[in-house]
Amino acid sequence: MLQSFLELSYIFEALQVTIVAIIIALVAAKYLSKDVLSKYPLINDKLPGELFYTKRKLHFVTHAKELIEEGFTKANKAFRLLTDDGIQIVLSPEWADAIRDNENLNFSRISEEDYHGHIPGFDPFKQGTLADRIFHRGISSHMNAALERLSEPLSAEVDFSLKQYFTDSREWHEISLQSCVTDIVSQLSSRVFLGEEICRNPDWHRFTVDYTAHTIEAGQELRLWPKALRSYVHWVLPCCQKIRSELADARKIIAPVLERRRREKAATEAQGKPPAEYLDALEWMEVAAKGQPYDPAVIQVMLAFSANMTGSDALCQVIFDLSQREELVKDMRREIINVLGKNGWNKSTLYKLKLMDSVLKESQRMKPAAVGLMRRYAMKETEFPDGTPMPQGTKIMVSVHESWDPSVFSNAQEFDGYRFLKMREEGDKENAAQFVSTGKSILGFGYGKQACPGRFFAANELKIALCHILLKYDLKPAQGPPPKPLTYGLYYIADPVAKIAVRRRQGEIDF
Fold first, then answer.
1. pLDDT digit string (tens) for 119-166?
2. How many angstroms separate the CA atoms of 109 and 137, rounded?
3. Does domain 39-290+299-474+489-504 bear CATH number 1.10.1040.10?
4. What is the model's pTM?
């Protein structure tokens, strides 16, 4: 009984401390906003009679795009937006150049905040750890350097997965595109990240798809709780319990493979022989770790999450776009036949697919991954471009609306797959018009020093997948309303329930 009493006392004391912390945080935030940030209008404050922000947060989750559009009718350069994770400052694209390389503004910290990196189960999102440093070294120093050698393994994996998910049927049949594409991208990415042995492991494949979806759901649910309570409530939330269990399962899959590789390396080195070479991220991260102990599962989940979340959405959207444009598909097929038929998968093949590159960039322009990108966290006090102090802890983002601005892009509301191909032919815009290039008008890969380091791999993966899909399948819209992107918080995602019709065709070249 005494033990129970003491436990209750500890819980009561912890709750008291938490409540006091919440009150202090709310008061401090109120006065900080009043003193410094109130010059920027708050466009979705609580309604009269609302005690908490819950209704406003839920409204943001389903109406973020409309709220940002509304914000720029009330402010030209910046405004405050109540998101599901508190108040953030939305900036006009005009300010993108001014903040892009500000060293006081950090993207990685935003990722940790969004996905609760300090909470068990969300370990892959914790920044500043050894695993985080190995992750970035592995991508920049090893994966990007190996891109040319990855084309043929990726091509083989696309061929294998399309037979499974698009099938070999020569009759028109409808497929749920997002579901199929998510599975395909997961398998392709796993081939590069973990090698042949694990990429077709059904347990790993299911984990990568499920963990991505469940983490987004769990992150969203946690953000609806006051920040000071999240470190407590996650223990009892089923969604958080689920991702902790899934992460533990991932470790069980990866650990035996890595341990066996290490034993084999040690044995061959003891014999004076060169160790086996592996063309995958499991090996690159081992090299990047330089012998330091680390959690390989956390790094693999980082890779899988990034690839599955953004890669599958981009491929899904561009297939929707192409299914409605038969003439564009014919032109793309001619380009693929000409380039791939002459060159095979050599160093310049993917670069020469310039129409495909243009289509990918146009698809990204019309439907970016989110309605607010270039997100940053103020690690220390700095300034907004207009000279207003930006307190430490301020969260900012840049609106993507310049992508749809008719003063920037002619016929901006119309999909033009040839847009960036024509731009490349203008001479001085050859580099800027490429899919992997970054700029404030199209923020899909970010902008500045903190732009996505994996965008070169993503571009190659998408192009290889499209080569197979377009030469091996006919596409057309399914019955019913056309696909329509939807917002989920800041995310702007390809229609998750729409279908397309596909049928196997006789490809002009065999690859």
1. 999 999 887 777 888 888 888 888 888 998 999 999 999 999 999 999
2. 18
3. no
4. 0.90
